[in-house]
Write a structure and sequence with these properties.
With 477 residues, the protein is mainly alpha-helical. It is built from 22 helices and 5 strands.
Length: 477
């Protein structure tokens, strides 16, 4: 997001008010959308006033807020508001919106509009948008850039989205170590503005090999005659373009970084990564984990067409249906026991429910630990022992509570004891699989969060029914 953009950022409460008003205005203007798109004047004074108000509100939005507004609107209203936005901010808005929404916006734009939108973008920003743009637009946009920028775009596009090289910024300031701080200050004054998030200047030799960094805070208080070599920091956190962005984001959080250099195998400085990109990575990974745990294949446009949403969700719903059928067959196998002791039908959902809840707690903690780098395969066994201990305590505690309640309700001590044993065993099963499912998925190269919530619930339901009804059949009949 450009620091030069003067549109006012809004707090969440004000933005929500704007979204409601924009929705109301856009909805009223949909019947005359064709006229608006053609630039024709509206004969109805009320609609004309609504259009003027909508344009004024939209043009006052910061690009990030505009992105939030567009993500919050149904498709037709979204396209209308997008057409009425400030054209000079289109590129920044496209960078801010989620990928599914970006696709709908690009589909609504002509080639001329797209070229105008990306005209002012930096090389790294153009590279970020390029996969979603038509090939002819990318080709035309690159033809207007100089050779250095074209090389930078090609370099950024050669890396995967989950690699540092795919998000690195080519705008940076570098200096030599054998100049004085006064020379550096004079050099910086030649810039109209420094690149966003410039908290340090990179020190390189004549071959652009990274030597260290000069923090701005040190530069400002250093003696003007002091050499850069005497005040620069040589212990630098740096990255290579092939590094994983999640690991880079963890390093930014761990070391409180604002920017960090990106070097090639020869230690030559080729770019930098900034904290704003790392915040996006952390947010996107968190959202992806949340979606995966719920069994969603990918990020989904909130107002996507029905069939698009169906395609995104059907896989794990099908899996869930299969596991539910297995659970029903487990219950069916004990129909005779349930007929003889009707109380079992009322109590067995409790055993399955608490197991699913406990398993989801464990699996959420494990996935988070793996995402933050706190858990490796070698620690899994130790953590499993700990989780089994927690499950045992919780099982005996809450099993005893429900056992006592069951005894009071049904006047049968045996049912109470079966509840204690079944809840404890199901919590132990939930703890075991809550640790092993994400560990196994990670071992086989899959996302540990992928469908984990669905899987653990399926296992604890079937397992809970089997354990409870099995114990009841053995000890009560």
């Amino acid at each position: 997001m450009s620091a030069q953009n003067l549109s006012a950022a809004k707090d969440l409460a004000r933005l929500n008010i704007d979204i409601d008003r924009i929705h109301e205005l856009a909805e009223s203007l949909l019947p005359v959308y064709a006229q608006i798109e053609l630039g024709e004047s509206l004969s109805d004074p009320e609609l004309n006033h609504a259009l003027s108000e909508l344009v004024a509100v939209v043009h006052d939005l910061h690009p990030a807020d505009m992105a939030t507004v567009l993500e919050s609107l149904p498709l037709q209203e979204r396209v209308l508001v997008w057409k009425l936005g400030a054209p000079e901010e289109d590129g920044e808005v496209l960078l801010e919106v989620s990928e599914p929404v970006r696709e709908t916006l690009i589909e609504s734009m002509g080639q001329t509009e797209l070229l105008a939108a990306v005209d002012d973008l930096d090389a790294d920003e153009l590279a970020e948008l390029a996969p979603d743009l038509p090939h002819e637009v990318v080709f035309e946009a690159l033809s207007t850039r100089d050779e250095e920028e074209r090389a930078q775009v090609a370099a950024a596009m050669s890396f995967e989205d989950d690699q540092v090289g795919g998000i690195m910024d080519f705008e940076l300031v570098s200096i030599r170590a054998d100049v004085t701080c006064e020379v550096v200050l004079r050099y910086l004054r030649r810039f109209d503005s420094l690149p966003d998030h410039t908290d340090k200047i990179f020190v390189v030799d004549d071959d652009d090999v990274l030597q260290g960094v000069l923090p701005i805070r040190k530069l400002l208080v250093a003696d003007p005659d002091t050499l850069v070599a005497d005040v620069m920091a040589t212990d630098v956190v740096l990255f290579h373009p092939e590094d994983d962005v999640e690991e880079a984001a963890q390093a930014f959080e761990r070391y409180d970084l604002v920017t960090a250099p990106v070097v090639d195998t020869a230690q030559k400085l080729i770019g930098r990564i900034t904290v704003d990109e790392m915040v996006d990575v952390i947010r996107e990974e968190g959202e992806a984990d949340m979606l995966n745990m719920a069994g969603l294949k990918e990020e989904e446009d909130l107002f996507a067409p029905i069939m698009d949403s169906v395609k995104n969700r059907w896989v794990w719903l099908a899996i869930n249906l299969c596991t539910a059928f297995v659970a029903s067959r487990v219950i069916g196998a004990f129909e005779g026991s349930i007929e003889k002791i009707v109380a079992l039908a009322a109590l067995m959902p409790i055993v399955a429910g608490i197991g699913g809840n406990s398993g989801n707690q464990t699996i959420t903690m494990i996935v988070r630990a793996m995402a933050t780098g706190q858990l490796t395969g070698s620690q899994a066994l130790h953590l499993l022992r700990k989780e089994l201990g927690v499950a045992t305590v919780n099982g005996l505690l809450w099993g005893s509570v429900m056992g006592a309640v069951s005894w009071i309700l049904y006047g049968n001590l045996g049912i109470g004891l079966v509840m204690v044993a079944a809840m404890t065993l199901n919590l132990l099963l939930a703890a075991t699989l809550g640790v092993l499912i994400p560990v196994w998925m990670d071992k086989f190269g899959r996302d540990p969060a992928l469908g984990s919530s669905v899987l653990i619930t399926a296992v604890t339901d079937s397992g809970g029914f089997l354990i409870f009804l099995g114990l009841a059949t053995v000890f009560l009949l």
